[in-house]
Amino acid sequence: MKKKFTVIATAIVLVIVLGFAIAFLAFQGNFSINGNKNAKVSELKIDHSADWLNCYLYFAVTNLHNSPLTTIGSRVNGVNYGYSTLQTSLQVPPGQTQNESLLLQNLVITKTSNYEVELTFTFDDGQYQVYSQSISSEKYVGAAFITNESFIVWVNETVLSLTIQNTGNIPITNIQYTTENITSAFSMKSDLMPKNTGVFKSELFGYIYRIGDLFPVTFQVTYADQSTTSIKASILAVSS
Fold first, then answer.
1. Which range marks the domain in which residue 47 is found?
2. Quick check: is 31 in a domain?
3. Which of 77, 88, 154, 180 is least surrounded by CB atoms within 10 angstroms?
4. pTM here?
5. Does residue 120 sit in the same domain as residue 74?
6. CA–CA dist 70, 97 (Å, integer)
7. Residue 44: helix, strand or coil by DSSP?
């Protein structure tokens, strides 16, 4: 009798444990994470916007779940960039693959950064999956080449003229110059984009530049990622 009771008790315990296991798995289904293949991500990359003021995440997502993918959230390096609710026509149906792009507001790419990306995929039935991956951006380098410079001496002033080419792949946002006792910056209406050439002029006061003399000038070029390049030159003063 005692043995029979033990068998029955063991069976009851097994049923209870099995019930908890099933309930736990069901609970986990509502909080699915990277291990549950509800979505497959490929070709994940990060790149800057055309104006270099923001970034975008680009990737392809395949819906392996039996419910449409309706919302995608993004977090990069611990910063939450919110959720993007897909319009009905842009939702990812079960079994299909779709290219996506997510705006990362005010994130500026730098040449040395790695990015810890976390994507949250929410489906129409309420289940979701969290996908994480560490990625790097393309290699960005700030570089500039001066093609022409001069001091143009007028009657009451001298104009510093500079022609510079952006030879790197990061926009130039500021060009500062130092000559004699003057430190200032050129006025730039817009960033000088990669591969473009710009001509800048600045009026100088407070120092007499003699025609035919060479004057040392240091240019500090600042790029969109806040890196800088210093260029030294000796510039000939010429008449107007």
1. 36-136
2. no
3. 88
4. 0.68
5. yes
6. 13
7. strand
Domain boundary among 136, 166, 197: 136
Q: How far apart are CA 148 and CA 102, in angstroms?
A: 41
**Domain end point (choices 108, 136, 164):** 136
Q: Among the residues of the chain, which ranges form H helices? A: 2-30
What pLDDT digit, counting tens, does each position of 106-127 carry? 998 876 678 999 999 999 999 9
pLDDT tens for each residue of 147-206:
999 998 887 788 999 999 999 999 999 999 998 878 999 999 999 999 999 999 998 876
8 Å CB contact between 59 and 42: yes
Do 168 and 122 share a structural domain? no
Q: 3-state DSSP: the chain helix, strand, coil percent, rounded to 5?
A: 15, 50, 35
Residue 169 sits in a domain whose CATH number is: 2.60.40.10
110/141 Cα distance (integer angstroms): 9
Structure tokens at 100: 């996506």
Is the Cβ–Cβ distance between 191 and 53 less than 8 Å? no
Is the distance from CB of 39 to CB of 33 less than 8 angstroms? no
Three-state DSSP state, 7: helix
| b/e burial code for range 179-203 (CB count within 10 A of at least 16 → b) | beeeeeebeeeebbbbeeebebebe
